[in-house]
Amino acid sequence: MLIAEHRLRDEVRRIAAAADRRLDEPSVPPGRHVWSGAALVVLDSATVCAAELARYPRRPDTILVTEGEPGLPEWQAAATVGADRVIALPADADRLIEVFAEAESTSTDGTVVAVAGATGGAGASVLTAAVGLVGAACRFRPETVVVDGARLGGGIDLLLGVEAVDGLRWPDLVVRDGRVAAAALHAALPAAAPGLGVLACGRALDGRVPEKLGPAAVHAVLSAARGAGDLVVCDVSGERGPHADSMLEAADLVVLVVPARLRAVAAAQAVSAYIGQRNTNQGLVVRGPAPGGLRAAEVAEALGLPLLAAVRAESGLDTRLERGGLTLARGPLRSAAEAVLAELGGGGR
User: Which pLDDT tens digit goes with each residue over 74-107?
Assistant: First the structure.
């Protein structure tokens, strides 16, 4: 429910209770994953205007409610968001009860996190892999899937040491009717650890540019994994374009990785603004070393983002990455991955 007018909000709460339906009341504006994933969205014209919902994708089962008979502003608001119907309250309360009774919940227990870098070499791919490894090890969700969105990044399977393991890569994926079966996806992906599947980009070893990723395919994979209750960790890195936007928009949290350097912070301001147009739920990881003494708290203050973790340089990490792929001992990178999972809602099950 996204209703600004308090009397309408109370009336909708009463009607939902009569229909024995629980209401979620997210903050405004809601994240796009909340907007797209809800079984039913009930809103009023004040919210439509205040939250700039015209930028959000059209979705079915959107109801605009009014206090009394709707006028021109209410009909205009309904058209703005593509509402299926306009219901006047309290006169048409029975009609809204029927809508609530018919609605079937499509919410799931899956979680999607996207990791982006402020600059090239920020460490977004490494943090993506670390979150995947820690999430799988602690059973944050029954299954964990790392999704590679960095088309020119060399392949996150190489970073995880499973580049020679047979299994599905993006160029091999066939999406039928806009859907992917989660069970088939789990079975087809190479495993970097127990419970950790990896969907990597292909490497064009003959010098060709790797194939583009389609946003429809990305949406199908993320929807399937979320619907199966998975933890999905997307490596956006510095990618831009429709497929990267699909990952950002679907995420419950976007983690921005920023090196503790002045130019990186300046770049991060633009990157954070770009992300904010697609997802308002951002968190910050600041990566050392800081040659000029820039502190993580100062970076967070400059960007206006909550600080999830400050990661100092980790001895031996580069060697581990070059010799067999990422492994995690107790240290700054593991602690940062744990902080991301804690922000998403807790530890293992």
Answer: 999 999 888 889 999 999 998 898 888 776 544 4
Distance CA 149, CA 60 (A): 28
Residue 299 one-letter amino acid: V
pTM: 0.72
CA 171/CA 173 separation, integer angstroms:
6
b/e burial code for range 84-117 (CB count within 10 A of at least 16 → b) = eebbbbeebbeebbebbeebeeeeeebbbbbbbb
Residues in the chain: 349
Q: CA separation (Å) from 7 to 65, 95, 97?
A: 11, 18, 17
Report pLDDT digits (tens) over 227-241.
899 999 999 999 999
CA 300/CA 308 separation, integer angstroms? 9
Angle at 82 between CA 229 and CA 102, to 5 degrees: 55
